[in-house]
Amino acid sequence: MSLCVVYNHPLDFFSFAPSACAPTHTGLLSCLSAAQDYVCTLQGSHVICTCCFQPMPDRRAEREQDSRIAPQQCTVCLQPFCHLYWGCTRTGCLGCLAPFCELNLGDRCLDGVLNNNNYESDILKNYLATRGLTWKNVLADSLAALQRGVFLLTDYTVTGSTVLCYCCGLRSFRELTYQYRQNIPASELPVAVTSRPDCYWGRNCRTQVKAHHAMKFNHICEQTRFKN
Ligand SMILES: [Zn+2]
Ligand SMILES: [Zn+2]
Ligand SMILES: [Zn+2]
Ligand SMILES: [Zn+2]
Ligand SMILES: [Zn+2]
To answer: What ipTM was reported for this prediction?
Structure first.
């Protein structure tokens, strides 16, 4: 948790909230947390957390020399996030920045996870539920497969230890989950699922968001026709 102590702050003398650390502050300001002990300088620059919109002292340059300073930005999109620095306090924030393997994607991360196709996503959800598995198992197994080179990510620099924001983490999780689903043997899925013919557009199909079409055709497959 964060503790941001402001001395002689012109607006909020006794505030201990991080929100008191306004980038425009003119007072002498000290931002403390359990892990970091740091005093903002008068001219010290701040970055705004993309999640809670609160400023934090910008120590990204320092971090390049000293890895003990917590990461303050996503490795992929480079947007600043405060969660690893002092714990993001936005209501509903699940932890907006973390190593991919530790990212809390939330219980709804499997909704529409497969190509935004709710029907296919529900098939996977049922498969997991009957085995007592959750998205955490999918992530852990997929990251292990990624490490073995069995699964692939578009951004090949991303591994389980890459520090990611929630959005970039979810995007990579969706890519991995598709491969996880692809690797489930047909024998472990209901006949009603495996007996459907493949849609010609496969995973790229734009009609698969419609329930009737999604139910009638399999979309866990590559596009086989109408390719340019
Ligand atoms: Zn500050
Ligand atoms: Zn990101
Ligand atoms: Zn934040
Ligand atoms: Zn946050
Ligand atoms: Zn289709």
So the answer is: 0.93
